[in-house]
Specification:
Elements: H1 2-18, E1 23-27, H2 28-33, H3 36-73, H4 79-132, E2 137-141, H5 157-170
Parallel strand pairs: 1-2
Helix pairs in contact: 3-4
Length: 171
């Protein structure tokens, strides 16, 4: 009985070994970073950050001008009135800083969401590419070293990147 089980197992093993396993790998970092959609997302986010920084600088300068004007007028004002104006200005500036922090967090969250979505899209694309082209495995190479060595002929990064960029242009 043992011999029959071993014989069947051996035959199954030989049959499964006869089928060639098509394997390739990609450089995850290069694939993501060179993908035109990621570059476009980064450009969009950087534009938002630049516009945000300009607004923040402009408003900060406005507060600085108001503070300077209060200091110039301070000797002419009654002490209580001066303190009230300083407090009001300080409160306004603190509210502005809170709003600024909230907007920064919003931009960061939006950026992270877009990048996460992009990574999911790329993974799905690679999976479909592998199925369509008969790959058993497509491995991902990264800084952690999940693929320490791979033949150049098995590197699919350039090929998949070109396909990704073609499909992105169609959207």
């Amino acid at each position: 009985m043992k011999k029959v089980v071993l014989l069947v197992f051996g035959m199954v093993l030989m049959v499964s070994c006869q089928k060639e396993m098509k394997t390739g790998f990609i450089d995850n970092g290069k694939l993501i970073n060179d993908y035109q959609k990621k570059k476009d997302i980064e450009t969009s986010i950087n534009t938002k950050i630049e516009n945000f920084d300009k607004r923040v600088d402009s408003i900060s300068k406005s507060f600085q001008a108001k503070a300077a004007a209060l200091q110039q007028n301070d000797p002419k004002m009654v002490r209580k009135e001066s303190q009230e104006q300083y407090q009001a200005l300080t409160q306004q500036y603190q509210m502005f800083q809170q709003q600024t922090q909230m907007q920064e967090q919003s931009i960061q969250k939006e950026s992270q969401t877009e990048i996460d979505t992009l990574i999911k899209e790329v993974r799905a694309f690679v999976k479909e590419y592998g199925k369509k082209n008969g790959y058993t495995y497509i491995l991902g190479s990264n800084e952690a070293g999940s693929v320490l060595y791979g033949e150049e002929s098995k590197d699919l990064t350039k090929e998949i990147l070109e396909e990704l960029n073609k499909t992105y242009k169609k959207d």
